[in-house]
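Summarise this fold before class:
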Amino acid sequence: MADGAGRWDRRAVLRRSGLAAGGAALGAVGMSQATWIADRRLPLAGGPASATLGGGRQQVGGGEVSVVWAARTARRLVALTFDDGPQPRWTPMVLDTLDRYAVPATFFLVGERARRHAGILRGRLGRHEVGNHSWAHRDLARHDAVEVHDDLRRAHDAIAEAAGSAPRLLRPPYGHLGGAVLHAAARLDYRLVLWSLQMVERQFPGDPAGHARRVVAGVEPGTILLAHDVGDARRLVALRGLPDMITALRDRGFAFVTVSELLRQATAPHPEG
């Protein structure tokens, strides 16, 4: 009996030691790891992971939502997209470059910024299209369906007013998809658009031409290319390299189209069998 009690005492000590060590390790890994662990406990039913809302009839528009990373096409088409704007610092520079080269693009706008900086967009979106990138760039994958819907609806109205046309495409911040995002997208009759190629500014500090060559080498027919017209100074490498990138892609036979035009020209997949 004494031996048994001793074994359990030792186990308790080891268990407590393990918990203490685990707590210390958690502190060492920092906030991101702690957030990841906490996210594993997010509620499923009714929470961010849930793609249904309550037990009644689901009010979800047409009843379906598609998610697009790229288009299936043999034609040399590429869609250039810009996230996070508009803001006075870089958006006008991007629009100037696109005007100079007659390149259409798709701007995924943040609703709060579109409302605050509507003047940047006025009269300048003739060849372009706009998409919804949330109201204030929160991570929508952390919020439930009601919160996500309200956020996107608010952004939708602000973007439509600022741009003069209503967005029909949605790109959630960080590309994070959750059930609540899918539910809200279906409810608002959005098409979800991610990307198949992204600017890699940090790999080419101070080298716009080198960055442009890297991006051009990665473009394939049907590519949706992600850029940003908001951010820190490192992103200027990509924006300053836009003329080289546009010229090089055109030299390779590529044509620039909006995302919606790219999807309209996409070919349907062949059925197997």
